[in-house]
From TrEMBL:
InterPro entries: Ala_racemase_N (IPR001608), PLP-binding_barrel (IPR029066), PyrdxlP_homeostasis (IPR011078)
Pfam family, one: Ala_racemase_N
NCBIfam families per UniProt: YggS family pyridoxal phosphate-dependent enzyme
Record bears the keyword Cell wall biogenesis/degradation: no
Official protein name in the record: Pyridoxal phosphate homeostasis protein
Amino acid sequence: MTEPAPVGLQARRSDLEARLGAVHERIAAAARAAGRGEAPELIVVTKFFPASDVRLLAGLGVRRVGENRDQEASAKAAELADLDLEWHFIGQLQTNKARHVARYAHTVQSVDRPQLVSALSRAVAAENQRRADEGLPARSPLGCLIQVDLRSPAEHAGDAGPAHRGGALPADIGTLAGLIDAADGLRLGGLMAVAPLGSDPAPAFARLMELSMVLRATHPGADVVSAGMSQDLEQAVAAGATHLRVGSDVLGPRPALR
Ligand SMILES: *Cc1c(COP(=O)(O)O)cnc(C)c1O
């Protein structure tokens, strides 16, 4: 990840500024169309793009960024530690990476199983011990969103085990919410989902909103609904999402390989 020459950097800045502005306009238009007073929060998904892009985005007013791989996110967060950024982890997370993620993440949006809840809670305790040893203040509680698998039961049935896209079954939300709520160092924020591939996102997001309403009946503070990406942000705004996760429409097409 070498820094581009200043001229390249200027051009990239203009490019990002234009794309970011267009995305903000789409969000505002969708919010108006839905009669929403407040537009949802934008999380810019910077996976596969260099830290230099994240720095430019911060200069353009972006505060929330999303990443889906620990190794890449750790490196960027360390390189950009001077910036006031909120790092949202949005990818499938192995329990052995929890310690890393607790160092830099504001929120893990992809909590999908009990073992991950306990691993994250232990990770926050370890991180706070590390900070105490260095005379640093404790971190804030780690935000946790429960990722929900919105596919139909028939689609679940065709699952190839752990290879599926991630997410807890709707029936397991209550149990996971209770575990997160009871765990030290974690704060239950709400729900996250990715619309199932190849079907209309609107009914999937409507289902997610229903699940959020059920969750909020017992956990009123868990009011985050993270839904909507480049392709379906309008449907997510219409459904009532509080947070959008937009990557390619801000940064451009992701490099296929690296
Ligand atoms: C990559 C990713 C996004 C952003 O997708 P785009 O189509 O690039 O906007 C959002 N959410 C998750 C979970 C992702 O992995």
